[in-house]
Amino acid sequence: MFSRILIANRGEIALRVIRACREMNIESVVVYSEADKGAPYLSLADEAICIGPGPSKESYLNIPRIIAAAEVANVDAIHPGYGFLSERAEFAQVCRDCKIEFIGPSPEAMGRLGDKVACKIAAKEAGVPIFPGSPGAIEDEDEAAKIAEKIGYPVIIKAAAGGGGRGMRVCHNEAALRSNLRNASTEAKAAFGNGAVFIEKFLEHARHIEVQVLGDKHGNAVHLFERDCSMQRRHQKVIEEAPAPGVDRRKITALCESAAKLIREAHYAGAATVEFLMDKDQNFYMLEVNTRVQVEHPVTEQVTGVDIVKEQIRVAFGEKLSIRQEDVVVRGHAIECRINAEDPDKNFMPSPGLVARFEPPGGPGVRMDTHVVTGYTVPTNYDSMIGKLIVHAPTRREAIIRTERALREFRIEPIKTTIALHRRLMQNSAFQEGGIDIHFLERLLK
Questions:
Q1: Residue closest to 268 by CA, chosen among 119, 75, 80
Q2: Active-site residue numbers?
């Protein structure tokens, strides 16, 4: 097994990987920016190395500085976490060139599945259901208009690389399509360094269902069943749960098997998430593949008992997956609430600053993944998520009750957070009945 791993990330995911390394008797080296200097989780690693100023492009996105830190620390491998460089094939290739194992897919597999256009082609070949739309990247307005007319409005423009809503535009007519095509491409170019966009049919009232998959270097792939991530705001997930409520389990099984087949045929090693949208008739269409560990991976860990981060590390070292498909069984229900340092009453304005009081909840079935403690200062440079509350219970109803109880116990002061919003959502009758879609939260907040 690896003797030393560098973690090229920050915050709660860095701490998550540090803990996995400790339990596997692997030394961990964590990098940090000047904005994260003094963060408590840094002391839990075996070594911490400063790689630059607060801005991400000068630290967590700076490949030469991260590789230099890895070489100085004499590590065997690099775990990229999520975000930052985790889905950059260029970074995976640099690691390979420097004889450092990248804990994730190969650059080739990342290229096949990380690019949405290439992924659609691979999915179609593997028999995975995909949206009707352009067969590849599109630049010509006239061509886009012809495709949109054929598949019917509304359509959505998407960036071939990246996600998070950037480079994305919903168009209800030809005039909107023509005016948004260039703008979407420009935004995608600025965000991801790749201005390629494509168009697909847009579902007005869809649910977001994703499948967690693990593959190894020996041609094996297993799925860990699905998560429902329909509770979103501006394409950013707010609540995730597993299993997906109210969906035909026969359809879920077929969906999960097709996702595992896609990963297997792409010769993919590591953790991946195959994301789908489901229409009102429970027809599924693949959105994309995330070629990294997901923020919401603990939801799946709680219902299956599989440690996804440890599997990532074992697979990167060359071991076979420690589980077979028949070993994977879903037990109970899990819900994850993303706790952000934001003020929902002021259009989710970021609320950085000193955390003078931090009292996380506990009790049966409650897991808290966070790097925050009393006295920690939330910096201004990064994403506003400061933790994840994950709750597990025998049934969905019990999980909702337990989550609401845990949220009542949670104290973070004086900064503003989304805790009160999550309590409101747990008490919402439509959520309790499972009757939501990806636009539910935006309608609720109007």
A1: 119
A2: 292
